[in-house]
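Lab notebook: predicted structure, single chain.

Context: the supervisor wants predicted structures on file for every construct in the current expression panel, including those that have not yet been purified. This is the next one on the list. No modifications to the sequence; it matches the entry in the shared construct table.
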Amino acid sequence: MTTTNVLVLCAFAFYIIVMIVIGAVYSKGTKNNEDYFLGGRNLGAWTAALSAEASDMSGWLLMGLPGAIYLTGSGNIWIAVGLFVGTVLNWIFVSSKLRRYTIVSGNSLTIPSFFENRFKSNGVLKIVSAIIITVFFAVYTASAFSSGAKLFATLFGTDANYQQVYIIGLIIAAAVILIYTFLGGFKAVCTTDLIQGLLMIIAILSVPIIAYAVLTYDNSFSSALAAKGITDAGSFVNPFTSGDQPISANEIISGLAWGLGYFGMPHILVRFMAIKSESEIKKSRKVAIIWVGLAFVASFLIGLIGRAYLSAQLDETTSETVFIRMIQQTFANNGVLIFIGGIFLCGILAAIMSTADSQLLVTASAISEDIYKGAVNKKASEKSALLVGRIAVVVIAIIAFFVAIDPNSSIMGLVSDAWAGFGAAFGPVVLLALFWKRSNWAGALAGMISGALTVIIWDYIPMISTSDGLVTIGNSTGLYSLAVGFPVALVLMIVVSLCTKKPDSKIVEEFESIKTVEA
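Prediction complete. Output recorded below exactly as produced.
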């Protein structure tokens, strides 16, 4: 093993040990499901903000999006634009009201519990939404595990042993995330997310700035791009082109549609529920919006600058490693620089871990609180429910491991599928639950199922005949499934609610009370 690899491994080992110690510390204060899954609703402003955004961004921010920008240029920026707008709207319109409503409505600890308590469906919504969470988070968690495995394989593997190192990296990433999530629960996850959010933003801002300074010291950026095969620099940085072709309306709509997903992301929404006061939410909102704005700009610049900066050119299978290779190339001259580069590489590890731990925890809460206590054993003790939750963390991690076991799996593709599933299934239900008192459980169920099924049919079931055989509707049209699934679910929820029985007076009174409650 080279000296460079040893120094990078030392940086990784230090970082990983700190994360596990945090999990062990918080395990002592975890006594029941509210502690394990919601941290006793006691998150401070900075912890809530950075935990929400760090758990949101994942390896997608530092690997998936820069890789897409690297390959085809600025046309992929529309995804970032959509996500930024979605983040802002979610914090402004959903955060405070959701926190209030989940407290008033039966002290709901999970999103499925909130749906059940809000609409009073006799357990139907709780079970259906818990199943949806389990299915889509298995895929989403797999994307984080795959990111971790690609990080290790890129750093420590060769062309000859890439697949073997990928599997080793997958095992290490899954094991570390599993240990501190299993031990400490929500507070451990949020505390590590705070650290990881700070590390991510330092790494993602520093590297493209340093790379650009080095690149343009005695050369222009356009000349550097030309040297790497980009003869039309203006086209490459133009957000209305993709590669050398004008970007289509479908691509812009699909990119902006990513923002709709925020309203249905359980691992983000649960942070709103856990903030300790309304005043803390106002502080968190500012921190989160600034953080995510900086992060998206930096992620975009990594892909753009990386195309001109890297000595070795990347292809479609390696483009998602652009940030890793920029760090390796920048911090390579001596031991101190290599160790600093190792710390920056921990920023990628931070992005991966901060998302996977949150997803595992939300899935475990759905299984423990909503399926086990909600349907299997309604008289279950807190101790047994907590044990089931911890077992669920292990089981989902194992499933995600096998989903991610293919080293050729696309991080962007896995995230895209899961994001669309949650956004379409839960987004309209959350919004109408908070803002429309006429909505009822039948409408919520119709919206939830139609949203999830639309995404599954759109993305996974080949039914369009082409010269190459049957393809999915998504592949045929190029339109992101969330852009279709969200409006389908929204319309069906409204129509079915209007065509079925009105909510009873108690539900309406509870809805009206939220307007005056200060939680």
